[in-house]
Structure formats: C-alpha cells, structure tokens
Amino acid sequence: MIESSLTHQGFRYHYRLVRGERRRYAPTMFIGGAFQTMRSLAKFAEVFSASTDVILVDLPGSGASDPLPTGYGGDFLADCVRRLLDHLEIRRANLVGVSFGTAIAHATAQNHPGRVDDLVLVGTMSRMNRRIRHALRRALAAMASNDVNAFTDRVCRVLLNYGKRDRIPRFRRAERLLRAAISRMTEREMEQFRVSSQRLLVHRSLDMSRPLQPRTLVFTGEHDTVTTPACCRQVAATGTEAYSTVVHGGDHLVPLEQFETCVGLVEMFLGGGPVEDVPGCASLERVGCLALQALAAPAAGRPIRLPGAMA
After folding, report:
1. What are the Cα distances from residue 238, in Å, to 162, 175, 281, 305?
2. What's the angle, vertex CA 265, arms to CA 20 and CA 295, rounded to 5?
3. Domains of the chain, first to last
4. Where is 151: in which H helix or E strand?
5. What is the DSSP letter of 162?
6. What is the 3-state secondary structure (H, E, C) of 241-291?
7. What is the rounded average pLDDT of the residues 61-82?
8. The model's pTM
C-alpha cells in the first residue's frame, strides 16, 4: 500500500493506492461523498483489491487535504483526478463516485473521457432541487450556531428516509454510523463540509448537454429521497451505454445499508462480462443514448430487446 500526496494548482491532496491481488479489470478509484474520507472508504479497498488496484483519494476540500474555496467546482476537481492518474502513471481507470462524489466522477468522465474505462455513480442527480437546498441551508445554519445536536439531526433527516425506515432492514445501523461519523468530525473536517456544501449550492447542476462516453452504471436505494431513482435514471439516460437500477431495502445511504449487494452490483459491472441482474436489485434497465436509438430504430431484421423491457 502506498500513501502519499501531490499538488494541483497549489492545492495539496492525499491518496492511497492499494495493489490488487489480481488484475481482472482496470484500476478503480473511489470518490466519496459527505462525511467520507479515505479512511471511511477503506472497506471498499479491502474488497475490490482482490480484483484490481484500488485508489482512494481525499481531493482538495475533503479529509486532510487542503481546503478548497467555493469558487472551484467540478471541472477543477475533475482535473485533480486526471492529475492523480498522471502521477500514478495510470492511463485509464474505473471511477466509482458516491453521493457528493458522483458530480466529480461525472465531470471527469465528460472532460477526460479517454482516461475513464467504466463509470459507476451511486446516488446522483442532475440538479439539486429546492427541498434539498433548503434542508442543506438549515443544516449549515445549525452548524454556524454551534448547535451540534440540531446539525446532526438535520443531516440525518436529509440523508435518511425516516418515513420508510420499517422497509429498510439496516436503517438503524446506517443512522448509528452516520451519527458516529458526524460526532468524530474534527473542526477542520466540519469546515471542509461547510465549504463543500456551499460549493454544492453554487455549482448545483451537472452538465447534461454532453453525453457520457464511458460505459456507465447508475443506481441508488429504492427509498432514496435525496437522489431519487428517477433522478438517477435521468442522469443515466445521458450515457452512450448506460444502465440504471435500484437496490432493495435502502435509501441514500445504501452503501451502508446494503453493502454486499452494492459490491456485487459494481463487481458484476466492472468485471467486463454480460450486464445482468444481481440479487437484491431491481432488473437492470439500459437507458442510455444507444438504448433510446435502438428503441427508435431497431437493427434491420432483428429487434433489440433491452434489459427490463417488455417481451
């Protein structure tokens, strides 16, 4: 394992490279969401390093890396990803973005498509809606007044679906882990969260005008009220070859609530074999640009049947 740092345009950031036992597919980078750092993503490295090299990164504005002013958006952070790949001499990598991290992975795939093999987005949306903006501002207001209990409660109410908790078997575990993660945040990490949240409020839309070139998988929990299944499907629809599904028994924190199912889904997709259904998920649906073209004009003499389509 290698842990080190590098700089891009004067901002220092940290990474961890875990060498894989095998090389079943391209090196895979995980870009985490709120309250996630290289440390909290280590479980993914343990699992996926059985199949490939794994890169974990605290980009500028996260973890122990340098603070990043709100004026720097997804394009700059995508350049940081590309810079890290250059530094590690990795020509192409898979990207797995989670929650906040999906915007960075999405921007990297758009701006540097030649560097991305496969793309996985876990909980994403094209634009932050009014309800989420309001909830985020309320959480930031509680933080500004040093009301830690109110801040924690408001964050939990945003990220977890309390209304469907009886349908999420590991809801209490996810809530407990989220509250513990918040309670352990240092003053520096709280400030990183504040600035990152402000960045989301300023740069709150994905660029949906350019198709995603890498093969793409987008999914979330079936009860996600932040990046809803419909929001995820909308983003997937801009992919050249993209698939969408939902994981049963989860909400926005589905990687905590259904870790094994999420791992199986991502492993299946990155493994390079046929894209097929995974236990614990709804049927995979091909929704990208090529799928829409196929529906509009099937290949001559042979209709194309898409995953999830009616027979």
Report:
1. 31, 33, 22, 19
2. 125
3. 2-129+202-296 (3.40.50.1820)
4. helix 148-159
5. G
6. CEEEEEECCCCCCHHHHCHHHHHHHHHHHHCCCCCCCCCCECCCEECCHHH
7. 93
8. 0.91
